[in-house]
Amino acid sequence: MEKKINQVSKSQKRDEMIKSAYDIFYKNGFHATGVDAIVDSTGISKRTLYKHFTSKEGLIIAAVNYYHEIMYRAIADYIEKSTLDQPVDKALLIFDFLAKLVDAGNLYGCFAMNAKTEYAHKAVEIEAACDVHTNALKGLIEKYLSEAKIKESESLAIQIMMLFEGAILRSKGTKNSLPIKLAKSAAKIICSQ
What we know:
By secondary structure, the protein is mainly α. The protein has ten helices and no strands. Keywords: DNA-binding, Transcription, Transcription regulation.
């Protein structure tokens, strides 16, 4: 029983470190955030941090995976709760979800995209974790396009993802949701062709 409690405690500590690191990385960036900042925010020692994660990169991968879990679930739930009937309209709800985030003040962009950009061609494992998120979103979009019996649904899902990612970057730069709304309009046009 005591061993089980220790495992839960270790798991909770690990989760707390991931959530804290996630918040700091999201606000400050990955290269700009040192391990000391994470240690200071969590109150744990470097030794404990490295016991759970062999490197800062390992912690970043865990934070990307955490982001993917919460964000993918939030987007999928948002779409599923929609009363829209048309599968294409459901696929394009990712833009509405993003616009709501930006309008609510989340101007940090996509955590996975931020990590991929900062570690492009430098850390294969980080890039792979980021790709899991992007591919899952593409798969979600493709699922609805397939339900709509759209030909070339995979290619179209990639195009929609390109518009989505571009909208994320533009809204981050402009600090408003207009680029997202414009990207959704463009996505509607390519879906209707």
